[in-house]
Amino acid sequence: MLRVTPSANIVDVLIQVALVDKERELDRLFATKAITRDRLAKSLKNIGALQARVRGAHLKTHLTQVEILTPEQNSRYGKLRG
């Protein structure tokens, strides 16, 4: 599921959209029996790169959050998050 927050960077959103598109493309390749080992390897490489970028954006947001919040807010967030 694509989750877009008000503070989302447009580039990060576009990366998420591209990831969903690549996943759907891979599904179509299997559904239409057009998949080959070469296409599978290429698709997985592309999907993995996009997943890494999405994950990186998510983790950078956590780093920014720590910088923005006060120590008390960060402590409270940590307790609420578990």
Would you kindly provide a written description of the structure presented here, covering whatever features stand out?
There is one protein chain. This protein has 82 residues and is mostly helical. The chain has one domain. 79% of the residues lie in helices and 0% in strands. α1 runs antiparallel to α2. The mean pLDDT is 92.
Compressed to H and E, one letter per element, the order equals HHH
Structural class of the helices, strands and pairings? mainly alpha
Mean pLDDT: 92
Count of DSSP-assigned helices:
3
| Total DSSP E strands | 0
Q: What fraction of residues sit in β-strands?
A: under 5%
Largest beta-sheet characterization: none
Shape: elongated
Number of domains: 1
User: Which radius of gyration do the C-alpha atoms yield?
Assistant: 17 Å
How far is the N terminus from the C terminus?
Answer: 23 Å
Q: Give start-end ranges of low-pLDDT stretches.
A: none
Name a few traits of the molecule.
mainly alpha; 82 residues; single chain
